[in-house]
Amino acid sequence: MFWGRRVCLQVGLTHVGGVIVGSPMKKGISGGERKRLCVAMELLTKPSLLFLDEPTSGLDSVTALSLCKLLRRLATSRTCTVVCTIHQPQAKIFNLFDQLLLLNRGSIVYQGQAQGALEFFDRSGFPCPAFENPADHFLDVITPNMNDSVESLLEKEAALQRHYTPPAVEHLLDTPKPLVLPRDVTPWRTQFRVLLRRSLKETWRKRNTTLVLLAQTVVMAVLIGTVFLRIGTSQSSVTRRQPVLFFTVINQPPAPAYHVSAYFLAKITAETLSQLPAPILFSCIVYFLVGFQPIAAKFFIFTAFMVLCSLSATSLALAVSAIARTTDMSVTILPMALEVCRLFGGFFLSPANIPMYFKWLNALSYVQYTYVGISLNELHDLQLYCTPSQINKQTGSCPTTTGEQTIASLGLDYISIGGCAGDLIGYIIFCRLIAYLGVRFIKY
């Protein structure tokens, strides 16, 4: 934490330490402060070499000069080499650079002391006029003009090449130096604690989104509960019970796709904590409105499956977003993956009737494990009754009297409730492991 404050002091960000970065929709720090924040983030790891790609782009002249003075101060006050590309800097910014590398169509035109470039262009026949910005003059010379003839361009290139002497750097290649990789500046536990606190703060700042999600959950739960209000335990409830069980499963949406180790674990921990209220609230409303078995153990098992289902959907979204190359690709793949999970969820097609060549898709459907799990939970020990009109006239008895008969008729007796819960937990771990490996090793 001390080093972080010191870096903020170096880059001049202490006065905005409590201000959010902001977004196009929400005001935050200024553009110049954003640029300095990017530099500060790199300095946190104490780099010996800092690469910056056009750090002054999009900044006004005052802010650009302030940022370049900061980079100059970093380069002279500590053992950090700053390398940056820059286009058409003002004269004051140009004078801050020690070394200069000019490129034209991928070839080196000049490399050496920044102040020595004036003499080089003077010797080459292109002196810099008085009171003109040297950087603008250099670019005007090396950039082809549409009005120039081919002969004049060739003469210009020949003059520059004739007077350019590459710096002697070959001797540096003959001096081997051992590569020493720096150890982590901060212990893993401290990184996790700080990142978790930051993720929780970020979640709290988005509490309006969470409240909207909870409101949406309440509306959907009340709608489902009133449509299937008090289904009872008659024979007709058998055909109504399974649709509502399946609909409660597919109503658990994944969290948004997320644009290592400590960061990843802290991020998913905060997201998981913020995700728990919605499925719990949904379960409390739907379970009692629909009229499932009024047994405490069954209610808590139902709620646990709703939580696992929500976490599974989020884990699938996390895995897809981590391995997809672009946001467009993840937006295309994720809905397709969710539809496959629903198709093989066990409601439209019994797992026992799925063709062998599609068994692997059935095994990858978290919807199946949730649907079968809550079905077994609800149907076990369920006693059904018949109205006089529903009694089988030939046998004089009810067609279905227990939930176990329904389980057998639906082909759901191939797994236990514990097996469904275990498969969901394994599914969550597997998807999040894929997501971690994608974040850790896939570079785009």
Automatic annotation (TrEMBL):
Topology with respect to the bilayer: Multi-pass membrane protein
Alphabetized UniProt keyword annotations: Membrane, Transmembrane, Transmembrane helix, Transport
Primary residence: membrane
Gene3D superfamilies according to UniProt: P-loop containing nucleotide triphosphate hydrolases
Residues annotated as domain ABC-2 type transporter transmembrane: 190-251, 255-378
Protein name, entry field: Uncharacterized protein
ABC transporter family G domain boundaries: 87-148
A single Gene Ontology CC term: membrane
GO molecular function: ABC-type transporter activity; ATP binding; ATP hydrolysis activity
Cross-referenced InterPro entries: ABC2_TM (IPR013525), ABC_transporter-like_ATP-bd (IPR003439), ABCG_dom (IPR043926), ABCG_transporters (IPR050352), P-loop_NTPase (IPR027417)
Membrane spanning stretches: 211-232, 244-266, 278-295, 301-324, 336-358, 424-442
